[in-house]
Amino acid sequence: MLKTGLKAFSHPWRWYWLALGVILLDIATKVWAVEAFMYGPAMQIIPGLLQFTYAENYGAAFSFLADAGGWQRWFFGVIAFGFSIVVTVWLWRLSPAKRWEPAALGLILGGAIGNLWDRMLLGYVRDFISVYYGGWSFPVFNVADMAISIGAAMLVIELLFFAGKKGEAEKSAEV
């Protein structure tokens, strides 16, 4: 009885639940940032290093093509939608024994859909986390961007350090 009740959280659904959690957290924090900072001052979290503020990104990463005239909204939307389908299928096909790779993909999927939501609904992505030091500042970002970055880093770590070892372990288990 307990086993059937938790079927919605079994493989691969648990990774889609992770993606949904990222999407909901991303949307909630963006709504909060709009209410708190759109017309008000930034909030210093660590003075001289980290603040919450409000920015609208009409382009892609690091505001790439932000001033392209509007076509980039649909271009990046189509790319994000297609990428989300690829990641969704990729997650579905992974072995239930895997943990690291599907967790990374769940983070990436949630982040991609979180930013896609903004892009399609508003025409831009809402950002609010600003990291800076002196005259240097990193482009303002959001929870979806963090999830994508963490997921991508996890995939790189998987590829560089664990992919060959898991392949050998799976081969020895087959013999």
What brief labels describe this structure?
single chain, 175 residues, alpha+beta, 4-stranded antiparallel sheet, 61% helix
Can you give a write-up of this model?
It is a single chain. The protein is α+β, with helices and mostly antiparallel strands. The chain has one domain. 61% of the residues lie in helices and 13% in strands. It has 5 helices and 4 strands, in the order H-H-E-E-H-H-E-E-H. A 4-stranded antiparallel β-sheet has the order 1-2-3-4. It is globular and about 50 Å long. The protein starts with a helix and ends with a helix. 26% of the residues are buried. The mean pLDDT is 83.
Beta strand count: 4
Radius of gyration: 19 Å
Largest sheet: 4 strands, antiparallel
* Shape annotation: globular
Order of helices and strands: HHEEHHEEH
Number of individual domains: 1
Structural class: alpha+beta
Distance between the termini: 35 Å
Widest sheet: strand ordering: 1-2-3-4
Low-confidence segments, ≥5 residues, pLDDT <50? none
Specify the number of helices: 5
**Quick check: average pLDDT?**
83
Helix coverage percent of residues? 55-70%
What is the beta-strand fraction? 5-15%
Catalytic activity: Release of signal peptides from bacterial membrane prolipoproteins. Hydrolyzes -Xaa-Yaa-Zaa-|-(S,diacylglyceryl)Cys-, in which Xaa is hydrophobic (preferably Leu), and Yaa (Ala or Ser) and Zaa (Gly or Ala) have small, neutral side chains
Membrane topology: Multi-pass membrane protein
GO biological process, one term: proteolysis
Function: This protein specifically catalyzes the removal of signal peptides from prolipoproteins.
